[in-house]
Amino acid sequence: MAALRSLSAGGVLCPSGAERVPGNLTGTGYDRWARVTGQDGACRGEFVPPKPIDERHRTPHAAAPEALPLASRVPGVAWGLLVLGCGLVLTLWLYRAQARQWNAARHDAVVAEAEKGLVQMRAKLRSAELLVRSLQTMFLVAGDMDERQFARAYANLDPRREFPSLLAVAYSVRVHGHDGDHFPTTLVAPPEGNRKLLGLDVVDQPANLKALVESRDTDHLAVSEPFPLVQDKDSHGRGQGITLRLPDYGPGASLDSLAVRRQRLRGSVAVSFRVADLIRTGLPAQLLQVARISVTDVALASSAPLFDSGTGARQAQPSIVYRMAFGGRLWEMAVFPKPTSDLSWSQSVVPAGLLVSVLLGLLVWSLTDTRRRAVQLGRRLGERYRESEERFRTLNELLPALVVLADAADGRIVYANQAARGRLGEGIQGTRLASLLGVDESEVERRLANPQAGATEVGLRDTSGGRFWASVAMSWLMLDGRPQWAMVASDVTEQRALTELLGYQATHDELTGLINRREFERRLQRVTQDMGESPPYAAVLFIDLDQFKLVNDTSGHVAGDQLLLQLATVMRARLGEEHVLARLGGDEFGVILAGLDTPGRAVELAEHLRLGLDGFVFVWEAKSYMASISVGGVLVDRPGMPLAELLAAADTACYMAKEHGRNRVHFYSERDEQSALRRGEMEWANRLRWAVQEQRFVLTYQELRALGAERSAIHVELLLRFRNEHGELVSPGAFIPAAERYGLMPLIDRWVIETALANVDRLHPAGPALRMVAINLSGASIDDDTLAERIVELLRLHQVAPERVCFEITETVAVRQLTDVIRFVTRLREVGCHVALDDFGVGMSSFSYLKHLPVDIIKIDGSFIRDMLSDPISHAMVRAVTDIAHRLGLVVIAEWVMDEAIMVSLRELGVDMAQGYALHQPERVVWQRD
Fold this sequence. Notes:
With about 950 residues, the chain is α+β, with helices and mostly antiparallel strands.
């Protein structure tokens, strides 16, 4: 602000007042006073003689300037000529430097265009490669294609829109002959101009055949050497052509060897171009204007030319050379900048340099003839002026902020810095400050009366007449004894727009434009808080798309996004603007129905929404899908209902709608047993995630006893328990169904496996003498392709003998996932682990697949063991399973052994081992005991 106080009305910083200059001016006989004024906008010096000194006191040097002899002025002329000569030399040097910069800038411009041309050319070639790979994928997926299918595929791709230089897209089938393989061309598109290719054998074109063989042997893109095109034979030739080739292999195993690739080759996909046209369309026009471009294939011994943008003799050496590897070829692009005219004198610094040199010489001539004190005084004035000018430039002209001064008397602007003039207009001076702010004079006075309030955001008008947002601070200022209004503003339009955009993105879904889950929950919270003790009612709906996963899996995520967008539009139209629709994530939507007269109105609106989407047909790339929704709702009939309970109830209701057959509406009721069970499972799912993190799971073991002669070996099965908040153990029957439904079994199984293998010698009091420990696995864990390798890794890490570990898989899982189970157990048995088939006998085809399943142990389901003494069928089943298992070399274990009589009967039938409460009650593992 101190600097601003130095501003004069004319916009020039200049000190005011008078300053005493000590000493006498040579030859004047006066003491002078130097006065600096700024009333007319400029600084000037004025010498005022106080009173003359007595002539008797004059010195011999006090002669008048005009009385000096001419010879005394000659040194000044010499200095002027010297400065003029130096100025001319400097001007010549600057001209040469400017010419060098001119030429360097021209060369840099060519280099920049060449770099862009190289990037554009590479992008063009990558696009061509993607085109060939798209055709290869179509043949690999479709198998054989006829002419109509091939023409349709070509029309869908429409390659000539991006590649005007493309000649043909062709397919050559492999035909075995007595003299070797032949590759006649069977499919060509477009047919116009390419009919000669039909029946053409690639063997007759060595360069084309070489590319076919390379792509066949490497399964990579191969580009041919340039060769004459068949299409140009009757048109006196239009240049060389190339083909891009990829192989088409028949079905089979992986292509991991050269012999397999050669054997399974079914045909070859090719795209042909006129290479010169392809390169020309790939280069930017600006590059061709400033340079001559030459492209050659240096992979050949003769370096075959591919493209040349000019004619006549070329330069001896190119200025820039690039090399591009593409499809097994190596292309070299040479850039020859075109000659340009040199920098003209009129565009250089020479005119200005000459003028400055002359003026500077004259100035030096004038200054050297000025008396010493006048020079000193002028130097001081010049220094003050330069200081003032620099201060003003630094504080005002070069500030990015908008600085405006206005006269407080009439409110008109008297000064605006460069930033203000550029943004608010050159004619801003003289206008009223209040009009600039769009307020009246009283508002300006109010802002000035409270400058401590800081900056505020207001709208200002720019040069185009539009308004922009600025952060404005205002204050009073005194300049030359007159009050001024000072305003400093900075443009905050972009920051404001960014803030608004971030605010929108924080509350809305990017795909559909609907509000997101966070904003949905905030609005729902407000609805529950604003409800009174009486109607209107409100309701919350959860919506799940029934066919979304099918669309995503078969047509891709782009199609899925389009389906979501279309359904969101339909639902928005069906609901109207008075209700809230949100996308909660994935294919889930939420609705807040507010202002309902009766609870039944919520059901009507939900059914109205479902009917609007019932039978909705979604079409994507010649495929159509029937879409529908499952709607779950919960009524908000009292104020202050907890948000978490509402969301959980709506989610439960939506799940029940899907469980009852989808495409229906289900409203939550606390008296609904299925809803209560679902809520219980949801609570268990949250508790189980917490249990894994807080180590709330407990392992117990139950011993297995041998029924034969050898009974000393100790075998145990690990059983999982959950320790609740009160320290009580909960059996797995209470939480396993919830874990299976919510996909938590792989997480739990991994915890059990890692915990058991890390403490295998601390599971049982026998310690290292424990012969075998059995661990149960769920079906979801079998689907994990990485679990088997993880088990092998843990066995090595903890140095556990694999034969001490047995993994149990239920018969139901084995029947349902037979292929995955065989792969899984085969890997475990390779390292020495045992595998047991648990709950055997409950399946429908147990004996039919038993001989194909690589297991070591069969555990007969306890339901047969429990009733075997009273039920002849159960007794016969136990006998049959035992006999068949022993014929297969398997160990038989009986579960649920409840008394000694059953043990005697099992021993008579030849059962190897038994397990049950009659033999051993489960105990907590040693390392987890209190």
